[in-house]
Structure formats: C-alpha cells, structure tokens
Amino acid sequence: MKKRAALGVTLLALAGLTQAQKDGQAVVGLIVKTDVNPFFVKMKEGARKSAAAAGARLMTAAGTADDDNDSQVAAIQKMVRAGAKTILITPADTQGIVPAIRAARAKGVQVIALDSTTDPKSAVDAIFATDNNKAGYLIGRYAGEMMRGKRAVVAMLDLAPGLSVGIARHNGFLKGFGIDPADPRIVCQQDTNGNKDLARTAMANCLKKNPDINVVYTINEPVAAGAYEAIKAAGDPGKVAIFSVDGGCQGVRDVRAGKITATSQQYPMRMASLGVEAAMTYTKTGKKASGYTDTSVNLIAAKSMSGLKVKDTAFGLNNCWGN
Questions:
Q1: In b/e form, how buried is each residue of 141-177, taking b as 16+ CB within 10 angstroms?
Q2: Residue 184: is it exposed, middle or buried by C-beta count within 10 angstroms (0-12/13-18/19+)?
Q3: CATH superfamily, domain at 132-265+299-322
Q4: Is 297 strand, coil or helix?
Q5: Could you read off the pLDDT of 253-293 as tens digits, one per residue?
Q6: 52-110: per-residue pLDDT in tens?
Q7: What are phi and psi of 110, to 5 degrees?
Q8: Angstrom distance (rounded) from CA 118 to CA 123
Q9: Helix ranges restricted to H, 33-192
Q10: In this structure, which CATH number among 3.40.50.2300, 2.60.120.200, 3.30.70.1050, 3.30.200.20 belongs to the domain 14-130+267-289?
Q11: CA end-to-end span of the chain
C-alpha cells in the first residue's frame, strides 16, 4: 500500500512537470548536500522564493551527508528524466559528480554549481559561489592579528578529505594566519563532515590530546557549535577562540555572545536567486550562464581588528545569508 501511495505521488509530480513543460514553464532542479545544515535550508528557501516569483517549477533533492555523492547522482538523473532544463547543485564529491553532470549537459541541461566548485571547474556551465579561500583567509587574518605576540595552540576541524570547499577554507585560514601546514603550533586536525555531533567528539579528542588549545578553526558554524560545547564541557570556553565560516543568523548571534570569535559571512540566498535567474534566461532565450560569479563574503566579528575590514554583528544579523 505504501509503495503504491509513493508511486501515486511520484506519478502526480511527474504529471505536473509534464504539464509545466507543455505550458512552457521553466523546470529548475536544486540539489544540495543535506537538508540538515541550515545553510542549505536557507538556500532552498531562497530558490523557492525566486522560482515562485519567476513562475518556475522547482524540484529539490538532498544527500544524507556532506559527502553523499550517490544520492546526488540519482537526483540529477531523476531531474533530467522529469524535464528539468537547469540543475543547480552544491556538489558533495567535486570529482565523483562530474560524469553525471556531463551526461546531463550532453542532453542540453544547463548545470550550475552553487557554493562549491566541481573538479574540474569546466564540468559545469557556471559557478555562483563564495570565494572559499578568501573566506578562510579572512578569519585566519583575524586569528593571526589577535594572537600576535602570543603562543598559539591550534586545532583544525575540517570537512572531509578531497572536498574542494574544505580544502580552500583550510588553506585560506593557514595563509591568513601565516603558518605552514606542518607548523608545530597545529596540534590536532580532525574531519567532521560538517556535522555538529561529529565536531563535538572531534573537539573533545583534540582537547584530550592537548588541553592547551586556544585557537580552533572550524569548517562551518554547526561544527563551531559542536566545538564550543566540547570546550565548555572541558572547562573555561573563554580561553579558546573559535573561528568559522557561514555567517548564518545563529552563527552571528554566537559571535555576539562570544561563542565564536569571528566568522566569514556568505550568501546562499544570493546564490540561489542568481541560479534561478540564469535558469529563466536559458528557458526564454537559450543562452546559458558561464564563468564564475563571486557571491561575496564579509568578515563578521564583535570587535574590530587593526588593518582588517570587519563588519559588526548588527550588519551580520541584517544580512545573514541574504535575508
């Protein structure tokens, strides 16, 4: 009975898409990494608003984790069969997703990467994303200036091996901080998959390894939240500075509360709206988007820092994720 009901829902959805195609309505697909991370929730919200305003029909899908490539491959194939002419995707596996993207493009589908680039970048028609290296660099610069003349003991809570967004932010942070990847001041590195619970465990392990850690880089704000909980459970959280990337409303509130020292704010709703706009242009004119569009990044902190352009938390809350 459940299978029949599910099939009925699918057939109704496909029927709606077929009618949309007959009516000349743009059908746009959006595939994000997960439905759990608030960043991607906000991106989907932005895509829905933009699609509704443009009169387009939006299909959405998500993986089960930040590195779930199989679900994204299946979603691309389903959307192509359903008649989507543009697919927007935040690639989980920047290399593993390429064959599915190329197959879709061979059928005339415009594919645009949001937030994360593919490897190679030329696998997609266009990229609308944060400069993730710059995002890491900004918080690294802030951390380096803050720790100038002090003894830094650093932990790195990363994403997962081989994922371009994680590599770019990690390397940007180190460059901004002014330390080499082999610097002995980096006493712990852990992968977290961008997950709060995994981050809590990873941070607890780092503190067991070296309780003197006083600087923590985190790949995103859910990881920063998990790290803060572990640090608080281990003692005095005020002795540890946490740096992150996202700039979501809760993340900015955490900066204001002193839980996060500084974060790089990015704008997923802007990425989504640009993607839907490009989809409409392709539907109406046949012209595809191309190249890389930087959707901007700003450094948010509660305290200013000499030599750095810092936005305060009031700005951060007024602009969190493009609100």
A1: bbbbebbeeeebbbbbbbbbeebbbbbbbbbbbbbbb
A2: exposed
A3: Response regulator (3.40.50.2300)
A4: coil
A5: 999 999 999 999 999 999 999 999 999 999 999 999 999 99
A6: 999 999 999 999 988 899 999 999 999 999 999 999 999 999 999 999 999 999 999 99
A7: -80, 130
A8: 7
A9: 38-54, 69-81, 98-106, 132-146, 164-177
A10: 3.40.50.2300
A11: 42
Reduced DSSP (H G I as helix, E B as strand, rest coil) percent helix, strand, coil of the chain, to 5: 50, 20, 30
Question: Do the Cβ atoms of 319 and 246 come closer than 8 Å?
Answer: no
- Residue 70's alpha-carbon distances to 63, 65, 66, 166, in angstroms, are 8, 11, 11, 19
d(CA 111, CA 87): 5
Q: Minimal CA–CA distance to 14: which of 104, 64, 80?
A: 80
Q: Where are the beta strands (DSSP E) in the chain?
A: 27-34, 57-63, 86-89, 110-114, 126-129, 154-158, 186-191, 215-218, 241-246, 262-265, 291-294, 298-301
**Residue that is written with structure tokens 């900066």 in the block:** 255
CA dihedral angle for residue 140, residue 263, residue 272, residue 95, rounded to 10 degrees: 40
Please report, for the chain, the start and end positions of each structural domain, with discontinuous segments joined by +.
14-130+267-289, 132-265+299-322
